[in-house]
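Hello Y.,

Per our agreement to keep a running log of every chain we model this quarter, I'm adding this entry. I've kept the format consistent with earlier entries: sequence first, then predicted structure.
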Amino acid sequence: MSAPGPGELALCGLPGELVAVDAHAGGEHGRVIVAGAPEVPGATMFEKMRRLASGHDDIRLRMLREPRGYPAANCNVLLEPCHPEAVAGFVIMEQVEYPMMSGSNTICVATVLVECGLVPAVEPVTRFALDTPGGLVRVEVEVEAGRARQVSFENVPACAFALDVPLEVPGFGTVSVDLAYGGMIYVLVEAAALGLRLEAGEARQLVRAGECVKAAAREQAPQSHPDHPEVPGPSIACLYGAPSGPHADQRNAVVVSTGELAWDRPDTFTGALDRSPCGTATCARMAVLHARGELALGTAFRNESVLGTVFTGRLVGETTVAGRPAVVPTIAGSAFVTGYARYVLQPDDPFPVGYTVADLWGAGAG
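Predicted structure for the entry above:
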């Protein structure tokens, strides 16, 4: 069965209807809303993101919480681009924030645009630009028989904020971390320093450790986006270590928050692992390695998830961001469409913005 075309993705006029294509990149869910979202004004995608968050956050809650979502879900809203070179714009929604950029979600969006005919597919490579809150992203999609086999894109600049920062982390003692930006603001820490291995069976321990490190970093070493000081961080944690085999150069586990850590409840954690290798974490890690002199321009960096999926990163240039030294990274990976759906909201639905329950969402759910 072929993918539905643009006409088949049109609205049918059902109550509260949002037309979406579900996909995953490296195992990480990335829903793409292709019709039904409101028109959002703004001179830039960053402005549109802020207005979507302030005026239409019910869409994020409805799509990411139960019964339509789950803790590790992501959602992307296609919008009219602001940049003249872009064929489309999109805003990324996660459980507790609207990120400036996301690698796995960019790969999902590009795949959906090509496979559903929302941009003309050219074989063997389709090239276009996407407008994101973090900036313009140039994309190349390898296309075969109408399928998007691999997506590579030049990400927004990445930079290392600080290296070898000592943090006092309750339950773990003094831990050395790096702080960097790769499209989101990261705190990066070696998993072995926390007594952990990067295995899917340790997911709960990895989540708790990542949330504790993130909370300590926000308290002891806060950062903000170089161009947008109103975007605080770090908002996400990356635990890294040795790969599982010669097919990768590093393995990592990225902890995405699903709520706020309660310091008066040391057993409380509200987060989930990114199922993919995470594109923005890969970029942040490459920026750190380059700042240490350990990753040269043009060298492939294969980053592995706890599922064993791999994104390949590469630094293709040096630049500056708000006066800071920065690098220009690329990310390559594949996405797979998993379904086509029309989400509706009946007027008497008791959960118009969804719900969270502690068995899945952690003790802070409600």
